[in-house]
Amino acid sequence: MISMDSKVKVIPCSGIGKVYGLMAREAALKTVHELCPEKSEPVCLAWIVTGDQEVKDKIEGRDCITVDGCPKMCASKNVSDAGGIVVEEIKVLDTVKEHKGEKFGSASQLDGCGEIVVSEIASKIADRINQEK
Amino acid sequence: MAEFKVGVISCSGEECLGGTISRLATRKVLDELKMVEPVTLCLPLYLAGGKEERNFARVYPVITVDGCHKCCAKRSTEKYSGKVSGSVDVSEIIGEENALDRKTVRNKDLTAEHTRMIDRVAGEIVKMIGNISPDAYSGKTFHGCGCNGE
Amino acid sequence: MVEKYAVLPCNGLDKCAGVISREIALRLCGEAGHEIICPVFSRIAEVKYRKIISEHPLFVIDGCPTRCASKLAVEKNFKISNKITVTEEAKKSGIELNDTLQLREKEQALIGIILNDLMNTGNKVTQTIEETGVSCHFDYETFQKGKFLFRVPVNKEIFFNENDCWAYVSGNRARIGVTDFVQQNLSDILFFTPPEMGAEIDQFGEAGEIESSKSVFELITPVSGKVIAVNEALIQKPELINENPYELGWIADLELTAFENDKELLIGFDKYFEIMKRKVNDLNG
After folding, report:
1. Is domain C140-284 in CATH 1.20.1640.10, yes or no?
2. Cross-strand pairs, A64
3. What is the complex's ipTM, to 2 decimals?
4. CATH 3.40.50: does it fit domain A4-132?
5. By C-alpha distance, which of C184, C193, C159 is closest to C261?
6. B-side interface with A, Cβ within 8 Å?
7. Three-state DSSP string of C236-281
8. Whose CA is closest to C182, among C245, C270, C103?
9. Per-residue pLDDT tens over the stretch C178-207
10. What does the alpha-carbon distance between residue A35 and residue A50 come to, in Å, rounded to a whole number?
């Protein structure tokens, strides 16, 4: 069994105002709970940014994959600043752009197309995690 | 009278159930509340230095919704924008054990029990918004250079 | 060349142009005291270079039209003050680069030409950016509605139309773009279709398109002119329009063809600011 220390940390931005923040969250959770439960774990971005020492110790010097819903890149920037090694920055909008003209739901609920995009993003995250080990 | 808005900053922590309930309850209030128009402020962006979020919170009353006892949303708002007009600690409503449960859930996996928790927390948020008087609005407006004095 | 640059080369290792790019950067730093930015390290941990970049203008050296170094700079929100592309410089000098990764006589000659141009012709390099006669920094007046901030640049050379597009006129050229009203309403901009290079556009004609998941917006040019430059960075990163539609997010540069006539139908800051406020209030209740 892979120890908690060696699991890849997956940190979504989980922005609440836009559907893309919901997608970031759903993709991260799909990865850590369904696709790569033995190799990855979620980390709370708010704890990282508020300087929680326990979480800082968890990510400092460790491989992290961030999932950002918008170009502000809150997860990526803050994880780097806190000492995490961001081995992959996943940008939800990169996958969204491959689905031009589709609608994805709202910031509260995804529709069918939104779920498809989430699956694609989760696969990208999982592929990256599987490269690590 | 100048317009009256209430900001809601919610945690969305992905390491425990409290964060999930916090997020979903806030979204429920935003989607369904008609009498006052709440404005959601993005906590990650707020923490990362988002000027629009922080400036809003300086001018308008803000309610924070936190998933656990660490109260990241409340502490951050008080640090960057001043006193909050109300705060909801989800762990006090659904119990600390539930709030700190490490099994976070996706929207499609919500159970009836989760929905009940969301409704209870949403009810508290609505109550808190209802208690805020328009006098809490500071009346400041922003005109001037783009930096807004961060 | 200016006093001291931060130099970001592409460092491409599979083409001669990349090797040349690297060599130019090393010589600029070794012989002329400029600061070098490692593209690989800045990709994963740019914190180390933030101080250098904040203190010195950034000079980007791309090896080829893939423009990896420029794209990296844009991705990291580094403001590019100046740039060259090695393959374009080779073409201008009539030099054909070899297929290997070795710097032979012709490649060394090209390096010499480029370095000579950079060091000895003073403002020639800075004119690469200033050729179109526009600079990129404005003062703004702002209007806040809820948490959203709407900026309008305060400058007597900037003109607006009622389609929420702006034109910054400098000599016989103009830079055009959309206002904050557009980018805030569209939310995250995902796609950018530029106007065609060389196209002659009439005042109030279409000059490109931007699209978000909410809707498509056709840019209506405030001025007539011939398209002489488009903001290529927007093709990879259309979100730059959201970040700042007046500076990083400019759309195109035009060579003006009828400005004296066009001006009569344009509005200045004072009037546009009021129009924008009214539109924002109408939209948001």
Report:
1. no
2. A9, A86
3. 0.84
4. yes
5. C159
6. 10-16, 19, 23-24, 26-28, 30-31, 40-45, 47-48, 50, 70, 72-73, 75-76, 104-108
7. HCCCHHHHCCCCCCCCEEEEECCHHHHHHHCECHHHHHHHHHHHHH
8. C245
9. 999 999 999 999 999 999 999 999 999 999
10. 29
